Amino acid sequence: MNQEILDLFKSGAHEKAIIALTKLLDQDPNNVSLLLQLATMLIEVTDLTQARQVLQRAAAIAPKQPEILYNQAVVMHQLKQDDQAIAVLQQLGQTKLAADANYLMAVIYFEQNKNQLATAFALTAVEQSPDELGTNLLLAQILAKQQAWAQSLSYAKKAYDLQSDNADAAFVYGAALLNHHEEIRGKQLLEQARQLAPKKYESAVQLILTE
Questions:
Q1: CB pairs under 8 A, 24+ apart, for 104-107?
Q2: What Gene3D superfamilies does the entry give (predicted)?
Q3: Each residue of 49-82: b (16+ CB within 10 Å) or e?
């Protein structure tokens, strides 16, 4: 990975960073680390066709590398090729990216309204990465959707404790508290979610608080 180019990308100069990385790859075309860096940048700017091509180049050099497989699954998911994405993610169960793979499978199943499967994979991801905001938040949201408020509460609290200025965490934690008969604190958190992300939560919070 090239840190200078990564810093350039993070500063918002996406196109410059991608061009600079492409030039480096012209000099070192079989550098899997740089290919992966380019692929993740392309995914972030949603240039999925180019990202897929770069990942195919990387896979031809290092076909078993977990990071390549995971990013291929991310691209497949974003292209709505979820069956293919799941097939790839299932290959990562015994790798260092197992938690990431389980998280993404939980996301896919949650989007498909397969809540039991989503719960199982999200729970596994939390067990593998107990201090990750994303995994705790996702599991809290999946359980909340099933109105399993008692179970949702602990994961929602963990997510909120990890990042108290996250609107999604504030919303799900507030909703869980409200449904756990802790109305004052629950309403405070829902109000915080509305202030942090009014476009997303204005109407939802209004609906909950006027019931």
A1: 104/70, 104/73, 104/74, 104/77, 106/138, 106/139, 106/142, 107/77, 107/138
A2: Tetratricopeptide repeat domain
A3: ebbbebbebbbeeeeebbbbbbbbbbbbbeeeeb
Can you give the pLDDT at residue 1? 67
Q: What pLDDT is recorded for position 105?
A: 97
Q: Alpha helices of the chain — where are they, by DSSP H?
A: 3-10, 14-27, 32-44, 48-61, 66-78, 82-89, 98-111, 115-128, 133-145, 149-162, 167-178, 183-196, 198-209
Q: Which residues 6+ apart lie within 8 Å of 37 measured at CB? A: 1, 2, 5, 6, 21
Low-confidence ranges of the chain (pLDDT < 50): none
pLDDT at 135: 96
pLDDT score for 207: 83
Report whether 85 contacts 73 (CB < 8 A). Answer: yes
Residue 99 confidence (pLDDT)? 95
